[in-house]
Write a structure and sequence with these properties.
Length: 154
């Protein structure tokens, strides 16, 4: 497994888009293409997880402020789910955001996969559900801990 940090136009960006479209299967796409990619910007940052020469998982990340980063659009191609690629992508995004000074991470998770993020240390900020099925979502957060185990955001 290889992890790529993706910024700007490159063959890796094509892999990011491939995974996001493939993860929307079965057809039709979960959202029209213009809507699916509406928040992507020229300076957007992505993680692309490759297995050999095949893109298998991706996520987008952005820094919201000096200490908070958001991980978005986490996706794994359906035929590779359950093999740790999504988790590896989230961990790589957290590492990249940490290098940028972030100490707290947010993920707007579909409720159907909330347990996936909870296993990685994320907790619901509130019980408010947004969106509509099958994309009803809940906001989750994870904070880094100090060596004493204290939450650094307290």
């Amino acid at each position: 497994m290889e992890i790529h940090r993706v910024q700007g136009l490159s063959w890796q960006l094509a892999g990011v888009h491939y995974v996001r479209i493939a993860a929307s299967n079965p057809a039709p796409l979960s959202a029209p293409l213009p809507l699916e990619f509406a928040d992507d910007q020229a300076d957007s940052r992505y993680i692309l997880v490759m297995e050999g020469d095949q893109p298998v998982a991706t996520c987008r990340l952005r820094q919201l402020d000096q200490e908070t980063g958001q991980i978005e659009r986490v996706a794994t191609v359906p035929w590779q789910e359950g093999r740790g690629y999504g988790r590896a992508g989230v961990q790589a995004a957290e590492a990249w955001l940490t290098e940028s000074g972030c100490q707290r991470f947010l993920i707007n998770s579909r409720t159907a996969v909330q347990a996936f993020y909870e296993k990685q240390g994320y907790q619901a900020i509130s019980q408010e559900v947004t969106g509509q099925p099958p994309f009803d979502c809940i906001l989750l957060a994870k904070s880094l801990k100090t060596s004493k185990g204290d939450d650094i955001n307290d």
